[in-house]
Amino acid sequence: MKPLKVVQLLPALDSGGVERGTLEIARALVAARHESVVLSKGGRLVEQLQREGSRHITLDLGRKSPATFLHYRALRRLFEAERFDIIHARSRLPAWVAWLAWRGMPANARPHFVTTVHGMHSVSRYSAIMCAGERVIAVSDTVRDYIRTHYPPGRWPHLTDERITVIPRGIDPAEFPRDYQPSDEWLARFHAEFPQIAGRKVLTLPGRLTRLKGHHDFISLVARLVGEGLDVVGLIVGGEDPKRPGYAKEIRERVQAEGLGERIVFTGHRSDVREIYAVSDCVLSLSSTPESFGRTVLEPLAMGRPVVGYAHGGVAEILGELFPHGAVAKGDVAAATARAADVVAGRTPVVELNTRFLLERMQAQTLAVYGALA
C-alpha cells in the first residue's frame, strides 16, 4: 500500500469507545508509516495521540448549533491544502460538516469519504449522514442489519451492501490477558475497601448507573441466588449519571429495602476494571436495549471469565462466539439466575479463546478499507 494521509473527525478526544477506536486506528496508521491526523475540539487524549505520532487539528465540529455547519468552508480549505487521501468521519455532526465540505470539491481532486456507524442512532435524515460514506464501517453484524433495515437501498440508492463493511471492535490481549491475576497489593487494597467480598463468589455488573443497564434485574438475580443459599456478593461497577441522580438513589434504596446491603456493593467509577474482572466469578450484561457492540462483555471473556447476558445486539454476537452457555433471552431473569448459578458452581464449559475480536485484526481491516479506496 502506498503511504496514505488520513484524517479522522470526531467531536472531542476525552473518553469513550469512539475516542478509543480513533486512537487505535491512528496508532496503526503511524506504525504502517502512513500520515495520521485527527480533527476534534481537543481533550485529555490529545497528548497521548500526539505522543504516539499523530497530528491533531483543533476545530469544534461537535457543538449542536446551526453555526457549526458554517465551518464547512474552512474545512474545505483545509482538505484542499492538506490533500488527504481519506476522510474518516466517526460522529454525525462532524460527518455532516465534512460531507458538505467534501461534496463541494471537484470529484477528481477530493479525498475518499469513509464513515463508521458506532451505534444505533435514531432513524432520521440527520443520522443518515453516517451512511453517506463511499465505504460505511459497521462495528458489528447488529449495526449492519440495523443499517440495512432502516436505510434500505430503495430509499437510499447509494447505500448498497457492497459499501458496508463489518469490522468488529477489538481488544488488545496484552491489556486483558487470559487468566490474568492482580497483584497482592491490589488484592489487599480492594478487600480492605470492600470487605463484603471476602470468601464469597463475586458477580459483577459493569456500566454506568443508568436505567438501560439492567440494575434492577441484577438486584433480583442476586436476591434469588442468596435465597437459594448461595454465598454470593454483587458488585455494581460504574459511576452515577450526574443528569439522573434520582435513579442511583432509587436502586440504592431498593438494595436496602430488600436487606441486601451486605450482598450488593456499589464501587463507583473505577479505573481498575481489569483487576475487578479477574476477581469476578461471573460478569453480567443485562441491558434492556441492544448494545451496538458490547466491550464490557468482550473484555472479561478475553480474560477467560464467564459472562451471562441478554442475547441481543452485539452482546449476542460476542457470547455466541466465545461463551454460548451464557446467552439468555432478554429480560429472562430466571434463566440468567440459573446460568449464573451454574457458573459459580463450576458447571459451565470453558470460555473459548478470542480470535475474532482482536485489536490487531480491527486495525488491519480498517487500513485495508483505506487502501482499497485509495
Oligomer: single chain
CATH class of the largest domain: Alpha Beta
Number of extended strands: 13
Helical content (DSSP H or I, runs of 4+): 25-40%
The side-by-side strand order for the widest beta sheet comes to: 3-2-1-4-5-6-7
Give the biggest sheet. Answer: 7 strands, parallel
CATH superfamily of the largest domain: Glycogen Phosphorylase B
**Number of H- or I-type helical stretches:** 14
- What is the domain tally? 2
User: Uncertain regions: pLDDT < 50 for 5+ in a row?
Assistant: none
Would you give the CATH topology of the largest domain?
A: Rossmann fold
The radius of gyration computed from the alpha-carbon positions, rounded to a whole number of angstroms, is 22 Å
Q: Can you tell me the CATH architecture of the largest domain?
A: 3-Layer(aba) Sandwich
Net shape: elongated
How much beta, percentage-wise? Answer: 15-25%
Spatial separation of the terminal alpha carbons = 9 Å
Could you characterize what this model shows?
The protein has 374 residues and is of the alpha/beta class. It has two domains: 182 residues, Rossmann fold (3-Layer(aba) Sandwich), CATH 3.40.50; 161 residues, Rossmann fold (3-Layer(aba) Sandwich). Helix content is 39%, strand content 16%. The chain has 14 helices and 13 strands. Strands 3-2-1-4-5-6-7 form a seven-stranded parallel beta sheet, with helices on both faces. α11 links the parallel β11 and β12. The chain is elongated. 42% of the residues are buried. The model has no long low-confidence stretch (mean pLDDT 94).
